[in-house]
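Handout, tutorial session.
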Amino acid sequence: MSDNPQENLRQIKSYVQRAGRVTKKQQQALENYSSKHLLEYTDNKLNFVEMFANNNPVTLEIGFGMGSSLVQMAIENPQKNYLGIEVHKAGVGNILYEIEHQNITNLKIMSYDAVEILKNMIADNSLSGVQIYFPDPWHKKKHNKRRLVNQENVNLFATKLKKGGVLHYASDWLPYAEEVLELLSNDDKYENLYDGYAPRPEWRPLTKFEKRGQNLEHTISDILFEKI
């Protein structure tokens, strides 16, 4: 570990690698379809036009879970391209199966640390959107520093978004949502598309985590800010 406390802070991850159960279908998808749809981490910038064979806008989703909502968005929006990031194998295997069997051509995925991908593989001013839906809230105060949406990463998202690109955050944990709303409201690189929280967009598919939050009677918060 570095003697530099700022460097140590940057090394804190917003996720933990859980040894979740991977089904036979998911494992087979990992083995058979990774070479077609899963991009390897490198230190080279991604060429989106080459990747998708078109010049359509690209939205990045960080933490797609099992991938059902991202798959739905890709199918419903063929005029857009999507890059999804997830570190858990079950979700990666699941979405690989769907991409292959539903013949989805506007969706690629990666399984690596999203901050490193953004820093090293995403060109500045290249993304039309960044989606962060129901990230781990790290409820305990001592774990708050692990939250993905913090000032450093808000700056990073702004660097990678095009002017007019949208950062869309959704959560069922109100203290986290309040923190994100305050962060973005005080940041002159962004402008709120709504007055405070956004109404729930009809085009955002219902996720497993959102359903769970609703069952627990948690407040669901959507936040949409545009890079200016």
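The second record follows below. Compare its token runs with those of the first.
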Amino acid sequence: MDPMSPDARFMQHALRLAQHAQRDGEVPVGAIIVMGDRIVGEGWNQPIKTHDPTAHAEIVALRAASASLATYRLNAAVLYVTLEPCVMCIGAIINARIARVVFGAWDQKAGACGSVLDVPRETRLNRRVDVFGGVSGEEASALLKTFFGERRR
């Protein structure tokens, strides 16, 4: 992928947010929501700090974008996240009507966009979201591996 492409550029921003989560002792996942060429919401994992199991990076970013735009309908938005969304997060993404999701690392244990489940392609749902995985995937995966390696020591 061209390092100057919008997807690569926005994923770099999400990776910086993931590093913020890591400094806080959280699993290093970062997310941003973009409309046009403008970031309208961002977040990083915060469930430990906030004592909130729903405080995944995607949910935090969705809440920020919805608050800044004063609507929960984010029809034209793209969500960039460093790790494949889980079931909870892809459900919220679909309910927010996000148009497109771009993620970094695949999650072989809890991923709901093709790894364990493939919720966005479920034909029985009333909404669709375009999903593209693997953008800066090696970098996102390395960040997670380093984090969990340090935790195991």
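Points raised in discussion: The longest strand covers residues 38-44.
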